[in-house]
Design brief:
The complex is a heterodimer. By secondary structure, chain A is mainly α. In chain A, helix 3 links the parallel strand 1 and strand 2. In chain A, helix 2 packs antiparallel against helix 7, helix 10 packs across helix 11 and helix 11 runs parallel beside helix 15. Chain A is elongated and about 95 Å long. The two termini of chain A are 24 Å apart. By secondary structure, chain B is α/β, with parallel strands linked by helices. In chain B, helix 3 runs antiparallel to helix 4. Chain B starts with 20 loop residues before the first strand and ends with a helix. The chains are: A mainly alpha, B alpha/beta. At the A-B interface, helix 1 and helix 9 of A face helix 2 of B.
Chain lengths: 375, 258
């Protein structure tokens, strides 16, 4: 490698990036827009499910039960059903996500000491939504049961007096806000997706513009050409990351508990790994359309399997293995570890080493795939 | 002003001077198609050597092999003392190459293109002086700050020539350099080429303009990948019968092979 030649190709790539205003604007604008979208819109903590009530009992007891449901905050009673079929119909049409059905004999059976049955219809087509609804409904039932049992035993129905009191203490994100969990992940998803697509176009663009032939007839080596292609985007990657971090802490109050230096250092390895993957795609593709198509192949797994949206613990073994083959999986653990838990590099070196491995692997693949000939 | 890469003294174009380019039985196949079929020729120092032929005759393929851009299927080729079959990358710092289509960066200015290629060829401290030389010789001063994509055909062609000469290569390859350039610009171009050859550069040119063939010291006719004639313009004319122009011969050769 020759420093003068490397310097020249860095310089040229930077000028070209600066001149391409549309792409530059996109690279800097998209992170901001996506952060807003994800940060505000993605909320997996489902509250206020619209629900219908079918109260066939029409008693003081049944009304008390309905109030209890409403008091959880998980249900918002928007409709009153006239019949069981009507309740089903409301769920079918999507007017409500749940329906609480209280039978005619509810109060009578309760007075007699039960058991009384009530039914909660839950739209389980979206598992996240339904799980919240189901959990809330069961909780209502348990509370009610406890009260009845304790009062029968002659004790005051007060939770403090119960023999076992399980207190859960949520660490790192005590308010369980989704944004705090999502924002660090957005940094990783944005970086990898943008950088893969942009560099996937790198070599292809030279080919399509007809400049590749003149470039490869020079003494530039393959490694120099490849390094030149990724250098400007390392800078872009850092700008994107900084924008998301700053906005994340301003808008969503995401605390940054660990060392920023750690994030920035590990990010370098991650950025190079993503760029290497993009370059590799670029050397496989003959046209821009092919490059975009093949980079999409990597984008969805990034979101689905890396643990960005869905917990990897819930995935079957093969999906977890696939996840281990995605650089983002490791970087997410680093981001969340440092930002939310405040852990240092000493706890994250396995992830960091894995990222170094990916960076070297992809970059070597790209250089090997790229030939300085036209056939 | 122009690089003197050849040896001084006796006329290096004499037939006994050691050839700069040696091509032996060079063959290149693309699948079932044979683009270049067992072609052999030598090019002497300071020659302006023309490779003529219709489209698809193998001119560009031949030049690309000599520049290390394509591997031949078989045969040998040496350029400026380097075996391009074995060491296609080693030849790249010793040649200048101007591709058929405009291959420079349209989103860079004239000056930026020159700076980039100067840096890539590693000309170091001399870069300022060489860019000055290129601007003056190629008459580019007026367009220095203009984006290359907005230049006219003649300017584009001279800029491409300038970038291929910044590192003062002893051998220069020009693939259809005058295609799509107006007659006045073509004349300027050939004046510059003549001056370069007198300065010691060996120049290999492909063209399908027969009126340009008279400017070559020697020429090779290619037809469907085969070498069908080789020699100075008068030699080629004599071989095909007096009174015929090169254009007549060209058409004749093409009909015979077509």
């Amino acid at each position: 490698m020759n420093r003068a030649r490397l310097g020249s190709i860095f310089w040229k790539e930077f000028i070209q990036m600066r001149r391409d205003r549309a792409t530059l604007g996109m690279m800097l604008g998209i992170p901001v827009v996506q952060l807003m979208l994800f940060g505000y819109a993605v909320n997996m903590d489902v509250r206020h499910l619209p629900a219908a009530v079918l109260d066939l009992s029409h008693t003081q007891e049944s009304r008390a039960l309905v109030q209890r449901f409403e008091a959880t905050g998980n249900f918002r009673l928007t409709r009153t059903a006239r019949s069981y079929d009507d309740a089903l119909h409301l769920v079918d049409r999507g007017w409500v996500r749940a329906a609480i059905v209280i039978p005619e004999d509810y109060a009578r059976l309760m007075k007699r000491g039960g058991p009384a049955q009530i039914q909660v219809l839950v739209d389980a087509s979206d598992p996240t939504v339904s799980q919240n609804g189901i959990a809330a409904a069961q909780l209502v039932g348990q509370r009610q049961n406890l009260e009845i049992v304790t009062s029968r035993a002659g004790l005051a129905a007060r939770a403090e007096r119960l023999p076992l009191d399980v207190r859960v203490r949520p660490l790192y994100n005590p308010a369980l806000k989704t944004a705090i969990f999502i924002v660090p992940g957005i940094i990783g998803v944005l970086l990898s997706n943008m950088l893969i697509i942009i560099t996937a176009m790198g070599i292809v663009r030279e080919r399509e513009a007809g400049t590749l032939e003149q470039l490869i007839v020079t003494p530039l080596t393959r490694t120099e050409i490849m390094l030149g292609k990724i250098a400007p985007y390392v800078v872009v990657g850092y700008v994107q990351m900084t924008a998301v971090l700053v906005l994340g802490s301003l808008l969503f109050r995401v605390p940054i508990r660990g060392s920023l230096l750690t994030i920035y250092l590990v990010a370098f390895v991650f950025i190079v790994a993503s760029l290497g993957l993009g370059l590799f795609v670029s050397t496989l593709a003959r046209t821009g359309a092919q490059a975009i198509q093949s980079s999409f192949f990597f984008l969805l797994p990034n979101i689905m399997l890396s643990g960005f949206m869905f917990p990897r613990e819930g995935m079957p073994a093969f999906a977890q293995w696939l996840g281990w083959a995605i650089p983002l999986t490791y970087f997410l653990q680093v981001l969340r570890g440092v930002i939310l838990k405040g852990v240092g590099i000493e706890a994250l070196w396995p992830q960091t080493l894995a990222l170094v491995g990916f960076a070297v692997l992809y970059f070597t693949f790209a250089v090997q795939r790229f030939h300085k000939t036209l056939d | 002003m122009i690089a003197d890469a050849g040896s001084a003294g006796t006329d290096p174009r004499a037939a006994d001077a050691a050839p700069v380019v040696v091509v032996r039985e060079l063959t290149r196949r693309f699948g079932a198609l044979t683009a270049v079929a067992a072609v052999s020729f030598d090019i002497r120092p300071r020659e302006i050597f023309g490779i003529l032929g219709p489209n698809g005759s193998g001119k560009t393929t031949t030049i690309r092999i000599l520049c290390g851009l394509l591997a031949p299927s078989s045969g040998e080729a040496t350029v400026a003392g380097i075996d391009v079959v074995k060491e296609p990358d080693a030849v790249k710092s010793r040649i200048g190459y101007m591709s058929q289509a405009f291959g420079l960066y349209r989103d860079l200015t004239v000056e930026e293109n020159l700076r980039f290629y100067g840096g890539v060829y590693g000309i170091g401290a001399a870069i300022r002086e060489r860019i000055g030389w290129a601007m003056e010789t190629m008459r580019l001063e007026r367009a220095a700050g203009q984006l290359a994509g907005t230049l006219s055909g003649g300017f584009k062609q001279r800029l491409a020539l300038a970038t291929s000469l910044l590192h003062q290569p002893p051998v220069l390859f020009l693939d259809e350099p005058t295609a799509g350039v107006d007659p006045a610009a073509r004349r300027v171009f050939w004046e510059i080429i003549g001056e370069l050859a007198r300065g010691g550069t060996t120049i290999i040119v492909t063209t399908h303009y027969m009126d340009e063939a008279e400017r070559f010291d020697r020429l090779a006719f290619l037809s469907r990948g085969h070498l069908t004639a080789l020699g100075t313009p008068p030699e080629v004319r004599r071989a095909f019968g007096e009174g015929l122009s090169l254009e007549d011969i060209f058409v004749q050769l093409q009909e015979k092979n077509g």
